[in-house]
């Protein structure tokens, strides 16, 4: 049987990461947060004093990425958020990371979440979900995360950062953020984590029944 791939896409703070982890556990599949790959590239660029928007510098760091980099504890800061959006807009960076993502799911299948899993990385995935939520709800979620992490950014600042990142993700030339034509769109604005999981799991079961 062909390895099962569940592709989950959506904007920042839509709840796709939490949902992807729970689906991976429920369906006994490996999990990869592909956004973390771009955060690692961004962090590596910043560590070397480079400009995340410079294609040559960002691509070189993408090609040097190793699995140990994914364990860093400095990948979820406002600075890295914006830098990750910049490196993700570079086609050569995305190409450099494409094999990493595909190889991850090659033998055992996987649940992967990101921005272009269903459209570019795994266009033939058995299941495709696009998780979204309103900007205000996503800002509240990200603000709560930042408070737990000890950051001092205001809610307005967090909302503005998300709006900038949304625009960059939607309008970039390389793999812009959009639902795959055959993706199931799930709006989590009014759903807590348990209800979002129940809705997503029901859709996954329905889709897998057709495989």
Beta-sheet strand percentage? 5-15%
Order of helices and strands: EHEHHHHEHEHHEH
Report the strand count.
5
Distance, first to last CA? 10 Å
What is the alpha-carbon Rg in Å?
Answer: 16 Å
> What is the number of independent domains?
1
Number of helices: 9
Strand order of the largest sheet: 2-3-1-4-5
Structure write-up:
It is a single chain. This protein is α/β, with parallel strands linked by helices. The protein has a single domain, classed as 3-Layer(aba) Sandwich (Rossmann fold), CATH 3.40.50. The chain contains nine helices and five strands; from the N terminus they run E-H-E-H-H-H-H-E-H-E-H-H-E-H. A five-stranded parallel beta sheet has the order 2-3-1-4-5, with helices on both faces. Helix 7 (135-149) crosses helix 8. The longest helix has 17 residues, at 155-171. The radius of gyration is 16 Å and the shape is globular.
């Amino acid at each position: 049987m062909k390895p099962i791939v569940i592709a989950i896409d959506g904007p920042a703070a839509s709840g796709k990461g939490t949902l992807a982890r729970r689906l991976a556990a429920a369906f006994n599949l490996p999990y990869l947060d592909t956004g973390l790959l771009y955060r690692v590239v961004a962090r590596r660029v910043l560590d070397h004093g480079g400009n995340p928007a410079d294609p040559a510098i960002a691509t070189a760091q993408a090609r040097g990425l190793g699995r140990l980099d994914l364990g860093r504890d400095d990948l979820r800061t406002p600075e890295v958020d914006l830098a990750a959006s910049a490196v993700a807009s570079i086609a050569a960076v995305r190409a450099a990371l494409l094999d990493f993502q595909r190889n991850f799911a090659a033998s055992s299948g996987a649940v992967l979440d990101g921005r272009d899993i269903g459209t570019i990385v795994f266009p033939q995935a058995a299941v495709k979900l696009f998780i979204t939520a309103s900007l205000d709800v996503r800002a509240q979620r990200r603000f709560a995360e930042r408070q737990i992490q000890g950051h001092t950014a205001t809610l307005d600042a967090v909302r503005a950062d998300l709006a900038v990142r949304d625009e960059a993700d939607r309008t970039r030339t390389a793999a812009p953020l959009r639902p795959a034509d055959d993706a199931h769109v799930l709006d989590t604005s009014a759903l807590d984590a348990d209800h979002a999981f129940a809705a997503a799991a029901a859709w996954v079961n329905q889709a897998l029944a057709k495989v």
